[in-house]
Hints:
Elements: H1 5-9, E1 32-42, E2 45-53, E3 63-68, H2 74-81, H3 89-100, E4 104-108, H4 113-126, H5 128-131, E5 133-143, H6 147-155, E6 162-168, H7 180-189, E7 209-214, H8 222-235, E8 240-245, H9 252-255, H10 259-275
Parallel strand pairs: 3-4, 3-5, 5-6, 6-7, 7-8
Antiparallel strand pairs: 1-2, 2-4
Amino acid sequence: xxxxTLAQQDTQTKPKERGAVAFELPGTADxxxxxxxxxxDVAGSTLKMDIYYPPSFDFQSKIPAIIIVLxxxxxxxxxxxxxxxxxxxTFVSWCKIISASGMAAIVYETNNPDNDIIAVSNYxxxxxxxxxxxxSKIGAFTxxxxxxxxxxTILNGSNDIFKCAVxxxxxxxxxxxxxxxxxxxxxxxxxxxxxRLPEPTSWKKNIPIMIVRAGKDEVPFINxxxxxxxxxxINQNLPITLINYATxxxxxxxxxxxxxxxxxxxxxxxxxxxxxx
Length: 277
């Protein structure tokens, strides 16, 4: 599993801005961005988040929000992409699309992904009136190697923040997944250990999850792990929606600039809206 795949792909040139999502909505240039909101102090270092609000949002009523859940540290982000994840064009692009669609979008700095997503959640709960984020209507978005942290958090029985989730071309780590040692070795090289899902029988059963599989994904283990997770989820009767993008590549939202990609992104936005209505 080569974690530099995305960074290598990012050297390709798209017709539009390199690394931007291949989808546009009216208003993306006019979204309201509250940058560098401190959400946690760790060992004298302040971690910050950015919140994107819809254009012309009046801050008089609370709105649903989507958190982009990160599974790799900003140290890894700088190695792979040259910047912290919250500043990378793909995540900025996604945040603008989400906010232009009528929801808030949140992306954050992270040094310890497992702990930091909990800190983000706690900050949102403590500042609901200040931020005008409806904490009863929070969804998740994650992708690729970020997926294990997100899915572990979402399916943990103590999750009281996420009401639904969308995963693009992610790999999933269950207890019985045979490639765990190889993936752990790679994660350790990036500065942390990949989190484990608990036994499937203990997974939270009421969180709708939409998974988009990239049929042409060239990253080893991803689609094998997805199948392993999907089978376990079906056996546990989780509310799972699977879209098989047969001709999609890893990073299809950026690199497959076509109508199928755009239809999947539209379906993603509708999935969130339906479950956070």
